[in-house]
Design a protein that fits this description.
9 helices, single chain, alpha/beta, two-stranded antiparallel sheet, AB_hydrolase_1, 23% strand, eight-stranded mixed beta sheet, Rossmann fold
Length: 269
């Protein structure tokens, strides 16, 4: 008797990608991209400092989530670079409370306007700080979190990026910085909001019911992977995973695919 043919593999879920926007609590309209599958489950993706929603392999990650049947929403904070999101006031870097609120606004938009169920919130780099802050400010709002190459030692990171004497320089007055994407003015008040972040206290306050994946590349020269290790050690239900040889933005096909694979596996677990 001939062997019975194996059942045909199910085709990958269809997904529609479209640009849209939503208004945050401060009245700023934020640009966003929805990748919509037939599933109601959705992952929100949040970028980091001097970045936007198309950095850090987010389009690839959205594609892999869609192939696994998951919808995703990625958006630009008001201080995103090369973005059409509205911003009230100057570019700043210590606006973590505001960006954590943007995350909450994105979750509410996905649930109330798109009819989705947000099952995971991901933040990269500065967004990793904001994910921890979000979990502390809005406990149990989202069941799973991904801290992707996130900063944890905010003071050390600030001094590393801008110079060990930056606080003394700012005490003498604002410092104008010229970047590839534009010019902005650094102030002591703004920087101290970042420097004074109590990351240990915030991490310890996250409820045990909230699961967190701390995912980091071992070749990250922007934020050492040990910062994710420390975060994972303090969040009650967190796990640390490292991707050997990956840099801060998971550049390259292999690193991007491995990052996406780990995130998708965590979301589906």
């Amino acid at each position: 008797m001939a062997a019975e043919a194996a059942p045909a593999a199910a085709p990958p879920p269809t997904a529609e990608e479209r640009e849209l926007s939503f208004v945050n609590a401060r009245g700023e309209r934020l640009a966003a991209v929805l990748v919509d599958t037939e599933s109601q489950d959705l992952v929100v993706l949040c970028h980091g400092y001097t970045a936007n929603m198309n950095n850090c392999q987010f389009p690839l990650l959205a594609q892999r989530l869609a192939e696994a049947g998951m919808s995703s929403l990625r958006f630009d904070h008001p201080c995103a670079t090369y973005s059409t999101s509205e911003r009230q006031g100057p570019f700043v870097m210590g606006n973590h409370e505001e960006e954590a609120q943007d995350m909450a606004d994105a979750v509410a938009f996905a649930e109330q306007q798109l009819g989705k169920r947000v099952v995971c919130l991901l933040g990269h780099s500065k967004g990793g700080i904001n994910v921890v802050l979000f979990a502390a400010r809005f406990p149990s709002r989202v069941p799973k979190l991904v801290n992707l190459a996130g900063r944890f030692k905010c003071r050390d990171g600030t001094l590393q990026r801008f110079g060990a004497d930056i606080l003394q320089r700012l005490e003498a007055g604002p410092v104008v910085r010229k970047e590839a994407w534009g010019e902005w003015t650094m102030t002591l008040e703004d920087v101290m909001k970042r420097v004074n972040m109590d990351m240990e206290g915030l991490a310890r306050s996250i409820p045990p019911a909230t699961r967190m994946l701390c995912l980091h590349g071992t070749a990250d020269k922007t934020i050492p992977w040990e910062e994710s290790k420390e975060c994972a050690s303090l969040v009650p239900s967190a796990e640390l995973q490292l991707i050997e040889g990956a840099d801060h933005n998971f550049n390259g096909q292999a690193a991007g695919e491995e990052m996406a694979r780990r995130v998708v596996a965590f979301v589906l677990s």
